[in-house]
Amino acid sequence: MLENLSRKGKLEKMKAELEEKVKEQTAVIIAREEQTEKLLIETVEALTNTIDAKDSYTSGHTRRVARYSKMLAERLGKSTEEQELIYRAGLLHDVGKIRVPESVINKPGKLSKEEYEQMKLHPISGYRIISGISWDRSIAFGARFHHERYDGSGYPDGRAGEDIPEIARIIGVADAYDAMTSNRSYRNALPQEVVKEELIKGKGKQFDPVIADAMIAMMDEDKDYRMRQEDLRVKRVLVIDDDSISVMIAQKILSKVRNCEVVTASDGDEGRKKLSESRFDLILVDIWLPGESGIDILGEIRGKYLTPVICMSGDKDLETFVKAVNAGAVDFITKPFVPSVLQEMVSYILEDA
To answer: Does the annotation mark 97 as catalytic?
Structure first.
């Protein structure tokens, strides 16, 4: 009997150890899946930023389409998981535009026949790109089929009705809605009533009638017409530098950045005063300032404000760069400035401001 009890005790111990190992392995698998998910989301966000950066007139388009698509999915009774999937598909619906020349994307007038044919290839390009990274095939379908029309007159395949995947029909309505409610190089956002009329006219032709009705219902609830591209707000940049020539050059370069206003300060104290008096979207601070280090000022800024900071210096050694980034700088630029580098760096950061 004692032998049986001893054996039973050993079995119980083995069982407990096995359960503990299973728990540990399960935790490892979950952590890996979460890490993979995080990397995929970061990839989506990076691609989204790349797409929006190519089009100077439709900043935020992909995010708005993703948001409207998710809202439509919710109104159509989709589960939380389906809504999230559709949101991600919305973020990536235009990723194929990476292969379209910027001269075509940003052309202010009507596209030529050849240019339009180039533009029409972006759903195919997007499908191929997403198929290589996506965790769900339907996200790739969203990119490939969002320009199909309900009556079969769209592209690239001329599909009609329910032969167009539902995810693409949802994105198609959201995409068209944002196109009408955003500023373009040749016109401003259309009045809400005009947009509504276009959706009604497009039911059963360009749009799935059920999805178009869902969007119209959302518009009816949007009494203040908030579902549209925000008016382009002027972004304010504070440059803290005692070198008047560098400041003048920075002002001249940044004058070419769209909707950018530059404010200057010649030392840390003046910079602190201006920060306390007004809101800024970006700060450029020189590492070497009279009587103090720009790194110390950077530390103060990071402790009080969420404003991103770029450090500037004539030093080109790696140690200075690493020191600035470790202190909280979002980037580092060397002097003398390369105009295209400074413009790109500032433009990219202001996109999210």
So the answer is: yes
